[in-house]
Amino acid sequence: MENEKSNYVLCYKDLCEKFSQRSPKEIACKSGAQYDAEKNLFTLKYFNREYLISYPEGSITLKNCNDIDLSHKYNSISDKILIMSYLYRCSKSGLTGKWVPYREIKGVGYAYDFFAGYGIDKLTKFFGHNGELFLKAGEKLNAEKLSLGDMALQFNIFPNVPVAMVLWLADEEFEAQANIFFDSSASKEVHIEDLASLCSKAADELIRSAKQVKYF
After folding, report:
1. Are residues 20 and 121 in the same domain?
2. How far, in Å, CA of 172 to CA of 195, rounded?
3. pLDDT at 74
4. Bond before 162 cis per omega within 30 degrees
5. What does residue 62 show for φ and ψ, rounded to 5 degrees?
6. Does 63 share its domain with 122?
7. Which strand (E) or helix (H) includes residue 43?
8. Do 122 and 199 lie in a common domain?
9. Residue 94 falls inside a structural domain
10. Residue ranges of the DUF3786 domain (predicted)?
């Protein structure tokens, strides 16, 4: 566990260094984040929540919850890596409007495709027999409905990275199925490995929203 933690910390520090070498003006222009030059702070939406990222240090806090500093919480290390990776790599390449499953994105290998499958399995098991809860969970996240599968939802992970979650409900003949789609431009905004992680995190986000609806 300690070695894994150390590797994550080293990865984060490396991304912070690369982030600091990119001009804040370019980052703001290409990421969709807002930059306050007086405070040296970016405001970035990640899964419908606003985060503050200091420049050039790269410390990350939830907006309006400044005591929640992701930079010092191990259980949030993967989120801060994804945020910094996006800010470092984003290119504002432009959406193509073509939805593709993760496995069809250029450069995806078997290992990453297998990892992304965890997120798809979570969606299938949790929502496969409850389409109404699926839609209510999406509504809570301000998701848009799409005409895919039996039902589908779209919301933004990052400003340049929309995700579509597609559900085929179980019936007498077929078992439930789900899939997660990205715009075909996604690999130009986020590293392939990070997209695999985002498949699982997107599923977790929708399930978390569903639990809030279910037990309200």
Report:
1. no
2. 34
3. 41
4. no
5. -75, 130
6. no
7. strand 41-46
8. yes
9. no
10. 24-201
Closest CA to 141 of 197, 189, 208, 194: 208
Provide the edge-to-edge strand list for the sheet that holds 65-69.
34-36, 41-46, 49-54, 60-62, 65-69
**Domain coverage including residue 81:** 2-89
Structural domain ending residue among the three candidates 35, 68, 89: 89
Considering its fold, how many domains does the chain have in total? Answer: 2
> Shortest CA distance to 44 belongs to which of 56, 57, 58, 28?
28
Q: How many helical (H) and strand (E) elements, i.e. helices and strands, does the chain have?
A: 6, 10
| pLDDT score, position 214 | 73
For residue 113, the model assigns a pLDDT of 75
Dihedral sign of CA atoms 114, 196, 203, 172 in order: negative
pLDDT < 50 stretches in the chain: 71-75
Q: Looking at the structure, do residues 80 and 134 belong to the same domain, yes or no?
A: no
Query: Which structure tokens are listed for 92?
Result: 């504002």
pTM: 0.90
Q: What pLDDT is attached to residue 135?
A: 98
